[in-house]
Amino acid sequence: MNEPKILGQFQLEHRTIQVSGDGRTGGTVWLERVHPDPPMALGCVVELDTPTPRLRLYRAEWPDALREEAKERTIALWQASRPA
Predict the structure, then answer these.
(1) 39-52: buried (b, 16+ CB within 10 Å) or exposed (e) per residue?
(2) Do β-strands 40-46 and 29-35 pair in parallel, antiparallel, or remain unpaired?
(3) In total, how many domains does the chain have?
(4) pLDDT tens by residue, 29-84
(5) Neighbouring-strand partners of residue 11
(6) Which distant-in-sequence residues (6+ apart) come within 8 Å of 76 by Cβ?
(7) Residue range of the domain that includes 73
(8) What distance in Å separates the CA atoms of residue 7 and residue 54, rounded to the nearest whole number?
(9) Do 67 and 53 contact (CB within 8 A), yes or no?
(10) Cβ contacts of residue 59 below 8 Å, gap of 6+?
């Protein structure tokens, strides 16, 4: 199995979130908070190759608008990382 590749990162309020995946088409990417310390695994976005990707958070209880923004920004990073 390949190590996850860092696809990018984005700011969400006070957090810097890093997105990584295995580089395959379709599937899942993982979210990790890299700032503020300590780094923490946040969850994943699954079913990226379907019309209804799903954000799954491990512990975070975010309002719906923040969850949707995190999902949209993660999908955008995933799409930008895919071969043309």
Answers:
(1) eeebbbbeebeeee
(2) antiparallel
(3) 1
(4) 999 999 999 999 999 999 998 899 999 999 878 899 999 999 999 999 998 887 76
(5) 16
(6) none
(7) 5-81
(8) 18
(9) no
(10) 42
Model pLDDT for residues 12-22, shown as the tens digit of each residue: 999 999 999 87
CA angle 44, 46, 49 (to 5 degrees): 140
**End-to-end alpha carbon distance in the chain:** 24
Q: Which two tokens stand for residue 82?
A: 């895919």
Q: How many CB atoms lie within 10 A of CB 83?
A: 5
Q: How far apart are CA 10 and CA 12, in angstroms?
A: 7
